[in-house]
Amino acid sequence: MTTRFWPRLFLFAALLLVLGAAGILLIPNLRWRAQVIFLSLTGRIPDIDFHHIIAYMLPGSDQSIARLVDTRNPYAVIRNQRMSAADAREGALLYRDQCAVCHSPDGSGGTAPALYGREFKHGASDWAIFRTIRYGVPGTAMVQHDLPETQLWRLVTMIRSFKPPAQTSASAAPAALSFREVAADELAQTTQTSADWLTYSGAYSGARHSALTQISPENIQQLAPRWIYQFPNQTAAVIETTPLVRDGVMFLTSPPARATALDAATGEVLWTYEHKLPSDAVGGEAGVVNRGLAMLGDALFMGTGDAHLIALSAKTGAVLWESQVGDYKRGFFITGAPLAFNGLVVTGVGTKEFDRGVIVAFDAKTGQERWRFVTIPKPGEPGSNTWSGESWRNGGGPTWLTGSYDPQADLLYWGVGNPKPDYDDAVRRGDNLYTNSVVALHGSDGKLAWHFQFTPADDHDWDAAQIPILTDIPGPQGSAKRILWANRNGFYYVLDRLSGKFIAGAPFARETWADRLDSNGRPVPHVEPSSHKGVLIYPGNTGATNWWSPSYDSALNLVFIPTLEQGMVFFPSESGATDDDSAVKSWPSGQGQQLFTSVRALDAATGKLAWEYRRAPRMVDNFMAGLLSTSSGLLFGGDQTNFFALRSRTGDLLWSFPTGGRITAAPISYTASGEQYVAIAAGQNLLAFGLPKSARTTLAAETAHSQPPQPAK
């Protein structure tokens, strides 16, 4: 009897273990908890004690830490949940008793540093502040505080409440910094820019079109520089910023992480803020780049090379809050301008090597994360079957360029980058969603409404990091809500922006990789015999266009595209290489072939070419600047160091100016003191152009007498 009992007991115990393991694998709420415990015990989740892990995953906890499985970063996951009015009152009492003697009652600093208007050296996220209070800072007067956790979180609430004091008349901001706050309703109602330039693309539509008409084809020859601002301490960094302008005040960014306010009429510096990057935060593939800001209320929002999002006072440049978007040590960085709407500010990220891209929304007032969309689904999520094996874990899909927003539908449209590794699809078999796609997200919660993939299983680095243009195109059954998209793969697309349905598509540049688009807009690849010597394919890896901003003139029904004509030789994947096949490699080669750039005007509804402005062939500099159209019939653009203006109806060159510096940014137009300006970053300078006084008329008189251009026939 005894000899049979123990084997049966062991068998029963083993069965229980198997059933327990199966339950953990099959029940999501058990699975993520087991994964978090395993990651914690193996040291893969830093800066959080095991007892906190257990406490935060128990039922009834006010923390939600399931995302630690993916992020392994408690600073991006753990949030302060003690922010009620009662918590704030208790936090104020605790601060008075525990902190005020060193930091001063108003947080302005005393024997200890100020608690606002500066960078927190040990992190500014909720969890970073919590840990600093709880554990102190060794070697300093900041001692640990052995308080109950609820009280620690209430202290975090109190510290976050500190703001710079209102300025007195003796230290008042310059008069130029007295401007109207930017209301969410105003942004939602702006369909094309006029006096101000309030978002990266001018308006949520992404059209980059100005209603200003003071500068026109009739007086363009008199356009000349009015002022020049030289970016400080710039040696090799590329300037790609798009300034914002509000009531005669200009706000702009420059590398590595600087924001500056200028008088938009003179270029005079009003204030400057600089975020200190860690020495090992080196930026993205193009180096340290920052493309601009977002604005809402009286706050500005800037992303940084160490993947932080910072809110600044537009009047003083003081820091209002700072939140971590991703871990720069894992390769995350931000180069794009954020987008602000409905009390939220949204940013994408770049991924230096692999990982998975995200689009993240924060509360514009507090910096609290509101939602996060991951561009590559994990197993069990829709689209996960488009990744083979474990390739999804480091699949890429960065989101480094600004999207567009439809306030009526509350839909946010954002382009997603290419899968990783760039040129080796053999290790990631499948379509690789949602890379090379536009994703439409509900602005309020970040849930996916629909997606459209331009290039499935991309192995040419043709990401979808382009600006979506939103428009209503008149048709026989009324206005049709459309997205216009010239993609890096060489095709122009028209999509229904409410459903994502493919409406039309056509090549806008030379392309040899696809025979056509099918009825759903999916490319039908051209079958080309593989060769270790490679295959010449158009477009090259830079694409037929890139992040360079397009423009759209609804009166002409023309969309204007910065275009590159360049082919490259692509080689078989490295995974197929043999020891004696030294020619097999991944990186494509231009092999000394000429290229040329051009501006192409397409019929918005069909993609049919209306006209082309072509630049001279060359062997180097496969890039262009973005574009800006105006209601006076002008189209501004740049190529290499040349800034030019075309007639938007025909493409005729009307004016050009040699800036002496490389131009890759896009121009803007605005008014200051009754004058229209056009500004562009070139080399290490920002140039603002205007008309001489004799050539100007007042904007009011012009508005009364001018008529918009007639549609093209």
What is the alpha-carbon Rg in Å?
27 Å
What's the arrangement of strands in the largest beta sheet?
A: 1-33-34-35-36
| Class by SSE composition | alpha+beta
User: Strand tally, please?
Assistant: 39
Strand content of the residues, in percent?
25-35%
Question: What percentage of residues falls in helices of 4 or more residues?
Answer: 10-25%
Low-confidence stretches: 166-176, 575-585, 698-713
Number of helices: 11
The main sheet comes to: 5 strands, mixed
Shape: globular
**Average pLDDT:** 87
- Separation, N- and C-terminal Cα atoms: 99 Å
Which characteristics define this entry?
4-stranded antiparallel β-sheet; 713 residues; 5-stranded mixed β-sheet; 27% strand; 15% helix
Structure description:
This protein is an alpha+beta fold. Helices cover 15% and strands 27% of the residues. The chain contains eleven helices and 39 strands. Strands 1-33-34-35-36 form a five-stranded mixed beta sheet, with no helix packed on it. A four-stranded antiparallel beta sheet has the order 2-39-38-37, with no helix packed on it. The chain has a four-stranded antiparallel beta sheet with strand order 3-4-5-6, with no helix packed on it. Helix 1 crosses helix 2 and helix 6 packs across helix 9 (149-161). The longest helix has 25 residues, at 2-26. The radius of gyration is 27 Å and the shape is globular. It starts with a helix and ends in an 8-residue tail after the last helix. The model is unreliable at 166-176, 575-585 and 698-713 (pLDDT under 50).
